[in-house]
Design a protein that fits this description.
- With 369 residues, the protein is of the alpha/beta class.
- Helices cover 38% and strands 17% of the residues.
- The protein has 2 domains: 190 residues, Rossmann fold (3-Layer(aba) Sandwich), CATH 3.40.50.2000; 158 residues, Glycogen Phosphorylase B (Rossmann fold, 3-Layer(aba) Sandwich).
- It is built from 13 helices and 14 strands.
- The strands form 2 sheets. Strands 3-4-2-1-5-6-7-8 form an 8-stranded mixed sheet. Strands 11-10-9-12-13-14 form a 6-stranded parallel sheet, with helices on both faces.
- Helix 6 crosses helix 11.
- The longest helix is centred in the first third of the chain and has 15 residues.
- The chain is globular.
Length: 369
Amino acid sequence: MKILILNWRDIKNPLSGGAEILTHEISKRLVAKGHKVTEFCSYFDGSRKEEVLDGVRIIREGNPDARTLLNSVQFKAYRRYKKEFEGKVDLVIDEVHGIPFFTPFYVKEKKVALICEVAGDLWDIAVSFPFNILGKIIEKIYPFFYSKVKIITISNSSKKELSEIGFNSPQINIIPMGSNSKVINDLPVKEKNETVVFLSRLSKSKGVGDAIKCVAILKDEFPNLTLWVIGRGEENFKKELDKLVSDLNLQGNIEFFNYVTEEKKQELLTRAHILLMPSAKEGWGLTVHEAGARGTPAVVYNVPGLSEVVLDNINGIICKVNSPEELARNTRELFRNKDLYEKFQRGAIHERKKHTWDATVSQFLNFIK
């Protein structure tokens, strides 16, 4: 089968996240099973216009910001499809991140839409007025144009939100997320001093600012408390975070790692005591299982996605109130209650073992067939 994936970012993009990991893990396994996969996505500084990665052909053109119009990845995808792919593929996957690729208007082949989450109020965080209002309007009306397209999503939370914006429930299919992280067998030795970790793309919606404020609340009680921030983001936002750290006098408590290798990430997740994930919304929450595989339970906000991947009082704690104060209260409890902490460590490892990419691909293939 020849498959074309239209996506805003690829796995190598500095701003890639869980959705891009999902796309690539599925793609490379499809290639291993004999399928031909091409991913068309946006260009980023320093990237190649075209390359093959794990057997997947990746083409990069256009800007991921739809406001660039004729230079947007959506328009470039339409042009490239008409020029090279029309009538020559068996399946087109339209991956939606706020703005779709509008494939029902021009793709004649079999198509599905992959939608990991509904942006909703994230539009107010991601873009300024009036584009936030325009984004919300588009998100409310595009289900009408996709009424005959099967939808793939990754959680019950996302399925519920997709139904609320106009998709029919039978139209929506859930495939499970896997995980790349290697699972340890024995509980690991953690850092001597209290250490928490934040692992995500650096953006306001991911809540890194609240994780930093949580450390400020706990600093007097745990003077040697350290927060490791792992992830990349826009330079302007990174400057905002540096200012926040300075204003809160946390220079000795916060360490930014930016990009790290997979080996380094596994090391940090193993040594840290707790994963903090105060995100405003997630389609699933892949990093919870990445940390869980290393015996590191999570404290998360009660938001769609995270409320499914974290089983409260099994592999972590779901905050009753989404605030830095509540994040700090739950973190303090795990630092103080060693028996509870060890219980969550074992629960985190157990829950991670339930999720594999091979199972994800198997369900994906069953769905598209």
